[in-house]
Design a protein that fits this description.
Strand content: 25-35%
Largest sheet: 6 strands, antiparallel
Distance between the termini: 32 Å
Strand order of the largest sheet: 6-7-2-1-5-8
Order of helices and strands: EEEHEHEEEEHEE
Number of helices: 3
Helix content: 10-25%
Radius of gyration: 17 Å
């Protein structure tokens, strides 16, 4: 198993556990997830972090429980593994920025059982670092169909579908606060 952490910092020698910047509402017993942790993503889900750090985005992909109707409506007729929606205001940054993918040793990490997320309560020294640029091309190489939209707000309906959906940094979208529920806030 391979685990990664993505950053705009090219010189991290050791990841120290730290609390999340913006705490999330957590179910009872999971409040510790807002505490000091090192976060990582598994190889299969690294597509979620091939973006500038603060870029609001929504990714969706099929699971065995996804209906043919939802697949056709949201994913389309192509062979994309997933779709990523990004607001047009972010596309130039997505194409221009380089990010750093740090590979982390898995020994101290435990799975959250959710979209490839892993956490460690111990400091972690990276095994190596790779610079990734032209992120739209990186997404395409991983089978992700990048879709540029004016606003993410109409995509709140994705959370009512049978697809697996991940919304990241949505608070940075000027329109997300106007989105109808049920998407995350």
């Amino acid at each position: 198993m391979r685990l990664f952490h993505f950053s705009d910092d090219p010189a991290i020698e050791r990841f120290e556990p730290r609390p999340v910047r913006v705490p999330s509402a957590r179910p009872a017993g999971q409040e510790w997830l807002n505490g000091p942790l090192v976060w990582a993503i598994d190889d299969a889900h690294q597509m979620l972090y091939l973006f500038p750090r603060d870029c609001p985005r929504i990714l969706a992909w099929a699971t065995p429980r996804s209906t043919p109707a939802d697949r056709a409506h949201w994913l389309g007729p192509g062979n994309a593994r997933a779709v990523a929606f990004v607001e047009a205001a972010w596309i130039d940054r997505l194409r221009a920025v380089a990010i750093h993918r740090y590979e982390l040793p898995p020994e101290t990490f435990r799975s959250l059982g959710d979209a490839g997320m892993w956490v460690s309560e111990a400091p972690v020294a990276p095994l190596g670092r790779v610079v990734l640029g032209e992120l739209d091309g990186e997404l395409a190489r991983r089978g992700v169909d990048l879709r540029i939209v004016d606003t993410l707000a109409p995509l709140a309906a994705l959370w009512d579908s049978s697809l697996r959906v991940s919304g990241i940094r949505l608070r940075n979208s000027a329109s997300w606060a106007l989105a109808p529920s049920p998407g995350p806030r």
